[in-house]
Amino acid sequence: MIPLPPLGDQTQIAYFLNQKTAQIDSLIADKEKLIVLLEEQRQSLITESVTKGLNPNANMKESGVEWIGKIPDHWEMKKFSYCVSIANGQVDPRQEPYSDMILIAPNHIESGSGSLLKTETASEQGADSGKYLCKKGEVIYSKIRPGLRKACIAPSECICSADMYPMKVHRMLKSEFLLWLLLSDNFTQFALLESDRVAMPKINRESLSQIRIPIPPLNEQELIIDLISTKMHEIKELVDELKVQIQKLTEYRQSLIFEAVTGKIDVRDAAEEVVTS
Questions:
Q1: Judging by beta carbons within 10 Å of its beta carbon (0-12, 13-18, 19+), is residue 64 exposed, middle or buried?
Q2: Using CA atoms, how far apart are residues 23 and 250, in angstroms rounded to an integer?
Q3: Which of 27, 39, 33 has the alpha carbon at shortest distance from 245?
Q4: Smaller CB count within 10 Å for the chain: N or C?
């Protein structure tokens, strides 16, 4: 059984809902566009900071690497394997203590932000294949589908999916700086080109070890890390607030439709205004 108003009332309800839902949809679309712009701003901030530095007036020099371009004159270019060690050897997640450790996989990481969405132990996930052991503070980078930009800092001693690389930085490099470099547009473009050369889209250990990356002085790395962290927090707050607003508008849209078609609200006068205007 469904409520069936007279045809004239049906027409008025339809006119009213067409107008109101169009207005709500327009508001939602504007907020979604703003989220996209904020995410683009985030990516631009990361990329510019880790390849050009914070001083727009700094003297620049050619890096000698096409995907990086020019870098500040006082920065160095170092081979990846000289700055970073990628873990070898896997552990059995079914055995203690690994079964009780957090297991990080690509689906646990938010694209592009370096944030963990959730944490689960290996036993909670029913893991049964080999995983890498990660130390607290190491960078974990997903070698699969690099365009998704999945990377994070290990929050504690944990294990990670075999689809990811645990990376330990050497003295001249900060973990957080490496994280932002891996999430930059420039590095992602390089990783995509490398991944296209194999059947499964991924960047292999050998290709990664051979590349050269920009290395600012440690004190400058810290300033870059602080700036990015602050701005990322501000952008995340704005995006989260916009998502809440979108959710409320979506719920209001559904409520308005339900109340109008079930006669909970009388929209006839409002509909007449829509028709005559």
A1: exposed
A2: 12
A3: 27
A4: N
Separation of alpha carbons 79 and 273, rounded Å: 70
- Give yes or no for a contact between 71 and 61, defined as CB atoms under 8 angstroms apart: yes
Structure confidence at residue 145 (pLDDT): 85
Q: Whole-angstrom Cα distance, residue 250 to residue 257? A: 11
Whole-angstrom CA distances from 71 to 10, 42, 58, 63 are: 66, 20, 9, 6
- pLDDT tens-place string over residues 97-118: 999 999 999 999 999 999 999 9
3-state secondary structure of 71: strand
Bridge partner list, 144: 202
Pinpoint the alpha helices (H) of 183-217.
185-195, 205-210
Report the SS3 class of residue 60. strand
Phi, psi of 251 (to 5 degrees): -65, -40
- Residue 263, pLDDT > 50, answer yes
Name the DSSP letter for residue 212: E
Do 151 and 114 touch, CB atoms closer than 8 A?
yes
Alpha carbon 69 to its chain's center: 24
Q: Please tell me the pTM assigned to this model.
A: 0.86
Q: Name the packing angle between helices 7-52 and 175-182 (round to 10°).
A: 130
